[in-house]
Every structure is written in structure tokens, then in C-alpha cells.
Amino acid sequence: MHTSTNRLAAEKSPYLLQHQHNPVDWYAWGDDAFKKARAANKPIFLSIGYSTCHWCHVMERESFENEETAKFLNENFVSIKVDREERPDVDKIYMTFVQAMTGQGGWPLNVFITPDLKPFYGGTYWPPENKFGRPSFLQVLQQVHKAWRDRRDQIASSATETHRKLSELTERDTQSNLVLTTSVLRQAGAKLKENYDPKHGGWATAPKFPSPSHPSFLLVYGTKFKDQEAVDMVLHTCERMASGGIYDQLGGGFHRYSVDEKWLVPHFEKMLYDNAQLLGLYLDCYLISGEQGYAEVAKDILRYVLRDMTHADGGFYSAEDADSEGKEGKFYCWTREEVSKLLTPDESKVAERFYGLTEGGNFLDHSDPDPLPHQNVLSVVHADLSATDEALLKSAKEKMFAVRAKRVRPHLDDKVLASWNGLMLGSIVRAYAVLGEQKYLDVARKNLAFLQAKLWDAQSKTLYHRWRDGQRDSVQLLEGYAFLLSGVLELYQATVEPHELEFAIALAESMIEKFFDKENGGFWQSAASASDLILRVKEDYDGAEPSGNSVAILALLKLGKITERKDFTEAAEKSLRLFSDRLQQLPQAVPYMLQALSFSLEEPKRVVISGETKDADFSKLLRAAHSVYQPNKVVLGTAGPVESFAKTLPSKDNKPTIYLCTGAACLPPHHEPQKLREQLAAK
């Protein structure tokens, strides 16, 4: 390793800090780098990744730590490192270019751009020697340098033309005449049921990603149109995922994806955004099926997050790496010999059968020149246990977990992002509302207090994106505002405390002011004040994470119903119209936005609870309101900035009282939690 540090040593991003000892003369994304490139008239080598990215580590080891490669880069390029989790807006622009140019994308994302930030060539991972039909990284650098030296004018005009095409590709400026009706939802449901794997659950083939927005929409669709097959697909998928190696059988929480079709061998990194969304999905499965197993998975996810992913002051960390001690999965895998030495013979026999442990193992890292042998990823192979065996397995798991905890842990990316924290905040609040455990509400309140203290400027109504090690950044992103707004709305609906609603309104107003395209609808990913971007993009792809637009639209629709604010509802509806072609023609790309469309097409049930919020009976009514799967509802109190009608509703007989309203019509008020459950379940 290079002993001296480069200028990345002054950064806060864990990913940038991983590169501080490289001999490459890295810059962070910003004016210093741009000025240097312009002054020297050199192209920029832009390398984008994240701290838990396996192939980013591989390319660093092979190329960025190589003195010869670094020397060539330093002499002929201005090199910039970007953490895609800190700057998803930068990543989106250049990923769109590479996908358009090569037909594929991924990380590390490596792009050559002009001093005025326009891309002209790019790719993902390049090996240190030319192999697999790919040129070596050094060959790529030499070819780009030669082209820049000999054909600079041609490259500049080509980059300008590319920029124009990128603008066209990312523009969503015309609202279609298509009228959005429930037929769009029916078509989408049929489309999203396609390619279902009836044996293992999930959709499509390996690698398999959970992509939680997809099954979440199928639950909305299945319950709305009484398509039990769609609901069963989701329940089966969640049951198979929780039995697979993609789920950490000892520590709880989900890994990022499975490399096979049966959810057995994962890519071992763990992301906050996956676990936040999957927590919500398993709570929904529990509400729909009544099966305790789904609730146990939800609790296990929370055990993991609270144990390993939470800052002492309440923020949630971003991710954990796949690798430890240079080996992927080493922290999580077991040899049969390790297990038999650790456990009693009876425990060992049960654990080996339950997890399907074999002498040969089920995981070999083919990307490693010296892979660990006999590794077993734990998955549930034989779940049928007697009461005696259950006790033995419990004891075995406790011993295995204790030993595993002493192993060298994978790297923790300990930055706190407003966006991903908003997702987890909303899901933890729902866990409190559905499961009734007070500690989850305490965690949620502590998290929000952390975000408000570290990332929210109340005076300017500004939400910043990243906090780490005592410092926040100066970046503002739609997904930060939208995801946190969604989380705060869940908190309000679980407590009906007016100050939570007031904060939701402040976030919504600021989000509309900074990101909403008032002329055409839709939300820009970045604020107009972002001077370091060649494009403003309206992100609308619900993949591993939902898009900022999808989350903003659904949150504004709900907030509009709670507050009677037409400006919130109109911004959401105008945005749905902007994306109407996308919703109809490519529903598999927008499953979260389809949930927003479903909400917009039917007058929601408004659960209004009147009375003293500290009363135990009030809490019982709130619990009842959240104990039925009913995505087409909002829950509100009668105090604070709620709709004017709710403010007029009194409590009856000096007891907390339920008013269940749809539009201008309300059912007779009552005080019965069970009656409310029945009313919410009635379709």
C-alpha cells in the first residue's frame, strides 16, 4: 500500500477514504477538479462506486494501487472519485450515458468526460490485463489519451452531441393524453405476475434481487382486485427468501441479492434500503396472512438494524460489506468441521440437518484466486423439527452467533443518509403500529430527532443528504425529502401528534419549492441550485430503491387527504399524468408509482380518532387502525393542521371515538377496536 495519502484523506465518505492511500492523485467531485481539468485541458477520469461494492474493491486492488497505472492517470487525466450513495444525481447522469453506449451498467462505473463534464467514453470494470475479450484498464487509458491528443475537437463535438441526446433521453416534459384508470392497474398486475418462479418464488432467473416495490404492488393489486394468486406469489416468495441464504439465518437482516435462482448463495453485502423496504413487506405479509413467521422475520430485521446499523444518537448507518479479511462471505459461512467442534453431538446433528451442512459446502468464491474451501451458507433445508430438536437448534444458534460475533466483521459504511433513514424510519414506525412494541416507536422518535438535529435546517427549510463523523454535506436531493416525508407521515399516522404533521408539511412545501416542475409536473432529482450537473433528471425507476418521484407522489397524495391541501394533491396528480405513458407501457419499471396510482384512483378511507391521545383506549383504537392490511387509507387526529372537517368531530361519551369516513360520508361513530378492524377489512 502507498504510505502517503492523497487529497481524499480530507473527505468524509467511507468510499473515498478507502482510496486515500492510492498512488492515483484523486480529487473529490467539485470545483477544484473541474478548474484543474480546464486549466490543463485534460480529460477527466470519473470513477463512481460505493464502499461495500465488491468489484470496486477488486479494481482498486488491481489498478488504482498499481504504480504504473497511477503514473499514467496522473500525467494524462484529472481523476475524480465519487461515492454514488452520496451523489446519486451524479451517478444517474453518467450511468445513463454508459448504459446507452454499452447496453449495460454497474459499479465501478468508469467514465471519461471533458473538462466541461460531458461524457465521451465509459464502461464498468476493466481488468489489469486484457482478458475475457476486454482490453486492460491501462490499454483503455492509453487509447483514450491518444484520442484526446489527436482528435480533441472531434471528441468535444461528439460529447456535445452526446449531451444533447442524453437530455432527450432523460426528458419527461410532455404530459400524455392517456387517462389513467383502474385498467392500467389490472394490466400492470398481469405484467408483474409474469416470469414468476413457482418453485423458489421471485421473478425472473438468477441473479435474483428482492426488489421490494414489485411484490408490494402485487399485494396492493391482489387485494384490490381479489386476485389471490398474486397475493400467494408474494407470500411464497417471502417465505422462500426467509428460508434462503439471502437471509442471515443467525443475525437477521437480508443480503443484497442471490447469485442463484433459489435464494441460496447471496452477494453478502447488506444495505439499509433493502432491509427497510423488506421490513415493510414482511409486515404486510403478516397482516394479510396472519402467519406469525412473517412477523418474526420483521422482528429479526429490526434486531439486526438496532444491533449493527444504528448510531448511538439514533441515525441509521448505510451498509455492511460482503468481504472480511479479503474474502467474500467469510464472516457468514461455516465449515461442517467448525460446527461439529463447537456444538454438542446432539446440537450438531440438528443444526447440520436443519441448515443442510455438507462436507463439501455450497459456496466457492470463483472470483477469488485462492478461495476458502468447504464453505456453507446457512439456509433452512429441513424445517420439520420436534420440540426437543427446536430447543437444541435454539442452543446451537446461540453458540454459533456468539462465535461469529468474535470474527473480523465486514467493513461498515457508517454514513447517515436522509433518504435511506427516511425509508427505515417509516418501516420501524409501522413495526410499532402493527406489532405494538413501544421500543420501536422510541427508536423511530430518536432517529427523527437525530435527522432534524444533523441534517435539517429549520430556518431555511433545507434537508441535507449526508452526515458522517460530525459533519453534514451541502447536497440536497429529491429522494432525501421524499423518503423522509414518507417516513414522517407514517410516524404521524401512528401517533397523530400534530408536531409530526407540521414537520411533514414543512418537508412537503420545501420539496415542492425546490424540486417540482410546475410547468410539466414531476420532480427533478436535484435542486436548481446544483451547478455541478450537466442535466437535471426526473428519476422514475423503482428498482432496488423506489424513485424519488414515486415516493413523493404517494406521500403527497396521503398528505393532501390528511390536510385538505389542494397544492399537495395537484402536484402529485400532475406528476402521475407526466408519467402516464410509463405507467401503462412499462409497469415493471414503476411498481411503487403504481401503488401511488392505485391510491389516487379511489377515495381513501379516512380513520379519524377523536379524544385524549394519552388515553389507553386511544392507543387501542390506533393499533386497530394499523392492524388490517388496507393500503387505501389515512389515519388522522382532530388537532393540528388536519382537514377542517376532522377538527369538528367530537369524542362521544368522554371516550376516544372513531369516525371512519370516505369522501363526505362517515359511518356512525363508535369506540370499538374490533369493529374498526372489520370496517377496514370490508372491501
For this entry, give a set of tags.
26 helices, single chain, 683 residues, alpha+beta, globular
Descriptive report:
This protein is of the alpha+beta class and 683 residues long. The chain has a 5-stranded mixed β-sheet with strand order 1-3-2-4-5, with helices on both faces. It has a 4-stranded mixed β-sheet with strand order 19-18-20-21, sandwiched between helices. Helix 8 packs antiparallel against helix 23 (591-600), helix 9 runs parallel beside helix 11 (272-289) and helix 14 crosses helix 15 (387-404). The chain contains 26 helices and 21 strands. The model has no long low-confidence stretch (mean pLDDT 95). The protein is globular and about 85 Å long.
Low-confidence stretches: none
Number of strands: 21
The separation of the N and C termini measures: 64 Å
Which structural class is indicated by helix and strand composition?
alpha+beta
Radius of gyration: 26 Å
Which descriptor suits the 3D outline? globular
**Main sheet characteristics:** 5 strands, mixed
Number of helical segments with 4 or more residues? 26
Average residue-wise pLDDT: 95
Order of neighbouring strands in the sheet with most strands: 1-3-2-4-5
Strand proportion: 5-15%
Helix content: 40-55%
What topology emerges from the helices and strands here?
Elements (H helix, E strand, L loop, with lengths): L13 H5 L8 E2 L2 H10 L3 E6 L4 H11 L2 H10 L1 E6 L4 H15 L6 E5 L5 E5 L13 H14 L1 H19 L11 H12 L19 H12 L3 H16 L13 E2 L7 E2 L2 E2 H18 L2 H17 L10 E2 L2 E2 L2 E2 L7 H7 L2 H11 L31 H18 L7 E2 L2 E2 H18 L2 H18 E2 L4 E2 L2 E3 L2 E2 L5 H18 L2 H18 L32 H16 L2 H13 L1 H6 L5 H10 L4 E6 L5 H10 L7 E4 L7 H4 L9 E6 L2 E2 L6 H9 L2
Parallel strand pairs: 1-3, 2-3, 18-19
Antiparallel strand pairs: 2-4, 4-5, 6-7, 8-9, 9-12, 10-11, 13-16, 14-15, 16-17, 18-20, 20-21
Helix pairs in contact: 4-6, 8-9, 8-23, 9-10, 9-11, 9-23, 11-12, 11-16, 13-14, 14-15, 16-17, 16-18, 18-19, 18-20, 20-21, 20-23, 24-26
